[in-house]
Structure to design on (374 residues):
């Protein structure tokens, strides 16, 4: 069903007014999902045209897009998308910042502790001395990533674990907001064998101190880059400090499409939204900013990779993970972060006269029966 934009607006306004726990009838579910499809098709059609207009775009085996020298493409992303996947190593349940795009916004004081001397890997809890046993029994991953939440809150604990994985020949990368980096702890990470460090530069709106720490990191760690959600605030601050950022010697910018859940959605209320394959919810502007960054990198000959780390990329990542785990054809855990469709989030795009559906048709007759038409 190619529902019209006006009918879509009428129905989502109605659905939004229903009690939160009221289930839709099957015919109403069909309408609700048709609206998501129409919005997604409109957004994806325009995105495809924007991407096609960027010269020199490269594709990594149909899984993700980027511009720049392939030798600068982050090794951690290759492991995630082409290797055995991304194995998260979690240790730190605290952060020193409160970013509006954080999945745990407003919940940071409720994040469970991992446990004294313990690390969470694959849902299990391990001490450093258990890693040899784990590697002997389990399939060795091509790469792991240190995430959750800010590793530099207790970075002094990370050296022994990094050495274990480095000795095993496993690629490692770490995420940080960069505010707690020092020449000493960056050198410690390098000496332990960390080959890749990623800075969420959007966490501080491109603070000068963090830009300097990126430069310091690049003096001792082989691959250093930026990975941050593409937001209006980041675009503004990046443009103001573009030259200083590029002068740090970074290898890549991973332009993450902003992914919203119940915690951070209120911070972006009023933005035009779409849902990718009924899963991740994102502001339309987020990937558009990625395309701007990619086009700018080509036009100005930046000597880095600019990577379109989009919802499509994350969708491909999950399919790859399931296949590597021996899942059946089509197996995936990709899905929505919401218990029900957040109807209110789509009212701005359905009300925006600048947005058109690619194809519209009248409501089917069988959906017009039973008093369903508003």
């Amino acid at each position: 069903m190619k529902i019209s934009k006006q009918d879509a607006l009428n129905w989502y306004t109605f659905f939004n007014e229903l009690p939160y726990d009221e289930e839709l009838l099957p015919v109403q579910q069909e309408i609700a999902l048709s609206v998501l499809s129409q919005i997604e098709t409109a957004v994806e059609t325009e995105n495809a045209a924007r991407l096609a207009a960027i010269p020199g775009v490269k594709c990594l085996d149909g899984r993700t897009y980027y511009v720049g020298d392939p030798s600068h493409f982050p090794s951690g992303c290759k492991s995630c998308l082409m290797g055995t996947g991304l194995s998260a190593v979690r240790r730190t349940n605290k952060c020193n910042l409160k970013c509006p795009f954080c999945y745990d916004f407003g919940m940071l004081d409720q994040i469970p502790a991992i446990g004294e001397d313990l690390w969470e890997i694959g849902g299990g809890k391990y001490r450093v001395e258990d890693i040899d046993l784990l590697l002997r029994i389990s399939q060795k991953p091509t790469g792991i990533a240190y995430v959750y939440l800010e590793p530099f809150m207790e970075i002094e604990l990370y050296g022994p674990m990094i050495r274990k994985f480095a000795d095993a020949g496993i690629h490692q990368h770490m995420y940080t907001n960069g505010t707690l980096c020092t020449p000493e702890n960056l050198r410690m990470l390098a000496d332990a064998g960390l080959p890749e460090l990623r800075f969420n530069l959007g966490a501080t709106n491109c603070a000068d101190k963090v830009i300097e720490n990126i430069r310091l990191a690049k003096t001792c760690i082989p691959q250093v880059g930026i990975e941050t959600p593409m937001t209006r605030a980041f675009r503004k601050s990046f443009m103001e400090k573009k030259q200083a950022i590029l002068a740090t010697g970074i290898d890549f910018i991973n332009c993450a499409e902003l992914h919203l859940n119940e915690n951070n959605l209120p911070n972006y209320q009023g933005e035009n939204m779409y849902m990718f394959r009924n899963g991740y919810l994102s502001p339309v502007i987020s990937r558009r900013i990625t395309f701007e960054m990619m086009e700018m990198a080509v036009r100005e000959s930046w000597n880095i990779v600019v990577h379109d780390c989009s919802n499509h990329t994350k969708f491909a990542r999950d399919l790859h993970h399931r296949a590597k785990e021996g899942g059946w054809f089509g197996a995936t855990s990709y899905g929505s972060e919401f218990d029900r469709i957040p109807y209110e989030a789509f009212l701005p795009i359905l009300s925006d006269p600048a947005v058109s559906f690619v194809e519209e048709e009248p409501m089917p007759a069988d959906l017009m029966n039973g008093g369903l038409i508003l």
